[in-house]
Write a structure and sequence with these properties.
- This protein is α/β, with parallel strands linked by helices and 408 residues long.
- It folds into two domains: 172 residues, Acetylglutamate kinase-like (Carbamate kinase), CATH 3.40.1160.10; 145 residues, VC0802-like (2-Layer Sandwich), CATH 3.30.2130.
- The strands form four sheets. It has an eight-stranded mixed β-sheet with strand order 3-6-2-1-9-11-12-10, sandwiched between helices. The protein has a six-stranded antiparallel β-sheet with strand order 14-15-13-16-18-17.
- Helix 1 links the parallel strand 1 and strand 2.
- It is globular.
Length: 408
C-alpha cells in the first residue's frame, strides 16, 4: 500500500467512455489499498479548441485572459472523472489548481510552480477520497489563474507527487513505456524497463515526446519515482525512471536513439575573428526569444571565421532576417541557411565508461554516405546534424549498430 499520483493525458480522457475506463482503473488501485491522487489533462483537442475561440476574438489575445479560458478544459475533465468515480462506488472530490493552492509565478501561459499547499489533499485522502486535481494550472500570488504551458499536466503531477512525498508518480499515455527509439521509425525498437533521469532528460530534450521535459527536470530534482504506463493496456510494468543506473548489472552503453526533425541551420560567413563576436551574433537572436542549440565556429587563416548554429525550424525565417542585419553591421561576407536538416542523437550513461562510441557512430553514418554537418557532445550523448532526407535511415542503422533491437 502507498500513495500514488496518477496522471492521465488527453487521449486517455478523450471521451466519456475513456473517462469511465480511467475511473475503473483507479478503482482497482484503490481496492488494493493505495491512496490515489489523479491529475487529468483536458479532453484531447479541447485546449486547441479553446485557444481557437480566443483567437477568433483577437489575433493577439491578452495572456491573462488566455489562461482563464485555457484552464477550463481541465475543469471539465476533473468534474466528469469525479462523477465517474462516484459511479464506481468511490468517494472522490475534484479541485482546480487554484483551489488546491498551486502557487505559481505570474508568467501567463508558461508559469512555473513555486509551492503547493498539500493540507486539503491530505485531509481528503485520510477520509478515504480519491482526489482529482486539474493539471496544467495554478494561480499567482494575486489570485490570477495561470497555466504551465504545453504538457504542463505532467509537471503538475510530478510537483504534486513531490509535495505529497508520494511513493510513485505514474504517467499514463498512449504508449506503454519509453522505447529505445520511435517504434514508428524502427519497428524493432525495444521497450526499456528502466532508464535514468539523466538519460530521460536527454531523450526528452532531443525530441522524444513521451514526457514533457520540465516534468523530468522536476522529478530528477526532487527524486520523484516516475513510471510511464499505457492507458489502454491493463498489463505491463511500463518504464521506471530512476535516479541512477542499476549498479547490479552491466549497464548498456547506449540506451536509445533520439531524433528531432524540426532543426534548421544558419551560418554567418566571414565573420571578423575577434573577442565578443559570438555575442554580437547571438545577442539579437536571444533578444528575439529564439533558442539556439548546437554551435560551431570555424576559424580561417585570413582573420575571419564562419559561425554556424541551429534553431527550431519554426524560428528559421525570423532568425535568418535578423542575421542579415547582423552580418551587414559587422561586415561579414553573408548569411546562409538550411531548413532541411535534422538532429540524431545516441544517448546512454554507459558512454562514461566506454570509449569509442563517437567513432562507431561516425563510421556507421559514413558507411551509408550520410554527411555529418555539426556535432555536439555531453557526458552521456552524442548528437549530429544531417540532411533531413537521411533521418530515418540514420536512426535505423544506429539503432541496429548499437544492438538496441528487441530480442526475438
Amino acid at each position: 500500500m502507498g500513495l500514488i499520483v496518477q496522471k492521465f493525458g488527453g487521449t486517455s480522457v478523450a471521451t466519456t467512455d475513456r473517462i469511465k475506463n480511467v475511473a475503473k482503473r483507479v478503482a482497482r488501485w484503490k481496492a488494493e489499498g493505495h491512496d490515489i491522487v489523479v491529475v487529468p489533462s483536458a479532453m484531447s483537442g479541447e485546449t486547441n479548441r479553446l485557444i481557437g475561440l480566443a483567437k477568433a476574438i483577437s489575433s493577439t489575445p491578452d495572456p491573462r485572459e488566455l489562461d482563464v479560458i485555457a484552464s477550463t478544459g481541465e475543469q471539465v475533465t476533473i468534474a466528469l472523472l469525479a462523477m465517474a468515480m462516484h459511479e464506481e462506488g468511490l468517494k472522490s472530490k475534484s479541485y482546480t489548481g487554484p483551489q488546491v493552492r498551486v502557487l505559481t509565478d505570474s508568467t501567463f501561459t508558461k508559469a512555473r510552480i513555486l509551492h503547493i499547499d498539500d493540507e486539503r489533499i491530505r485531509k481528503d485522502l485520510a477520509e478515504g477520497h480519491v482526489v482529482v486535481v486539474a493539471g496544467f494550472q495554478g494561480a499567482d500570488e494575486h489570485g490570477n489563474i495561470t497555466t504551465l504551458g504545453r504538457g504542463g499536466s505532467d509537471t503538475s503531477a510530478v510537483a504534486l507527487a513531490a509535495a505529497l512525498q508520494a511513493d510513485e508518480c505514474q504517467i499514463y499515455t498512449d504508449v506503454d513505456g519509453v522505447y529505445t527509439t520511435d517504434p514508428r521509425v524502427v519497428p524493432e525498437a525495444r521497450k526499456l524497463d528502466t532508464i535514468t533521469f539523466e538519460e530521460m532528460l536527454e531523450m526528452a530534450s532531443l525530441g522524444s515526446k513521451v514526457l514533457q521535459i520540465r516534468s523530468v527536470e522536476f522529478a530528477g530534482k526532487y527524486k520523484v519515482k516516475l513510471r510511464v504506463l499505457s492507458s489502454f493496456q491493463d498489463e505491463g510494468e511500463g518504464t521506471l525512471i530512476t535516479v541512477e543506473e542499476d549498479k547490479k548489472m552491466e549497464q548498456p552503453i547506449i540506451s536509445g536513439i533520439a531524433f528531432n526533425r524540426d532543426e534548421a541551420k544558419l551560418t554567418v560567413l566571414g565573420v571578423p575573428d575577434r573577442p565578443g563576436i559570438a555575442y554580437q551574433i547571438l545577442g539579437p537572436i536571444a533578444d528575439a526569444n529564439i533558442d539556439v542549440d548546437m554551435i560551431i565556429q570555424n576559424v580561417g587563416h585570413d582573420g575571419t571565421t564562419d559561425f554556424s548554429f541551429t534553431v527550431n525550424r519554426a524560428d528559421y525565417t525570423k532568425a535568418l532576417e535578423l542575421l542579415k542585419d547582423v552580418a551587414t553591421r559587422m561586415n561579414a561576407r553573408g548569411v546562409t541557411g538550411d531548413n532541411k536538416t535534422c538532429k540524431v542523437s545516441a544517448v546512454g550513461v554507459g558512454m562514461r565508461s566506454h570509449p569509442g562510441v563517437a567513432s562507431k557512430m561516425f563510421s556507421v553514418l559514413g558507411a551509408e554516405g550520410i554527411n555529418i554537418q555539426m556535432i555536439s557532445t555531453s557526458e552521456i550523448k552524442i548528437s549530429v546534424v544531417i540532411e533531413e532526407k537521411y533521418l530515418e535511415l540514420a536512426v535505423r542503422i544506429l539503432h541496429k549498430a548499437f544492438g538496441l533491437e528487441k530480442a526475438d
